[in-house]
Each structure stands twice: as structure tokens, then as C-alpha cells.
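Attaching the record inline, Q. Sequence:
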Amino acid sequence: MRNSLTNFRMSEAADKEKSELRELLERAQSQVPQLNEGIANVDAVSSELRSAREALSAEVGRVFDSMAEALERRRQELLAEVKAREQEKQVTLGEWKRKGDKVANFPERQ
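Structure, as predicted:
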């Protein structure tokens, strides 16, 4: 009798556990659509972030390319200016050299 009472209580406890597990499973399953929606939202935001990063990366590339072009143009302008000034000074030095040569080759008076 004691054995059958123990078996009855174990069976009753197992039934109660099954019932609680079913309820827990039903609650979990009712949350699946919301979880799927949340996952879809995360995927959408992730995709938007990726697109935004790609667009910003392209913009940064364009800006830096533009800056590099402007710097190269300015470098070329400055180099041309340096060359022009050097040539002007060479002309001036050439004139002074010719004058100096004339003076140096001038016959001395006695």
C-alpha cells in the first residue's frame, strides 16, 4: 500500500511537472514571433549601418582625394614660382657677372 501511495504521488508530481512544462513551452512559443520580429529589426538596422558606413567611407575618400589634388596643384604652383625666381636671379647674376668681366678686362691706365 505504501508503495502504491508513493507511486501515486510520483505520478501526480510527474503530471504536475508535465503541465508546468507545457505552460512554459506555450509561453515561450508565444514569444517566438516577437523574437523573430526583433531579429528582423536588428538585421535591418545592421544593414542600414553598413550602408551608412559605406557611404561615409566613400565620402571621406572623395574629400581626401580632392584635398590631395588641391595640395598637388599648390605644390606645382610653388615649385613653378621657385623656379621662376631662381631664373630671375640667374639673369640678374649673369648681368652682374658680365659687368664684372668688363671691369676686370678693362685695360689699366698707366
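The two ends are 158 Å apart (CA to CA). The chain has one helix and no strands.

More tomorrow.
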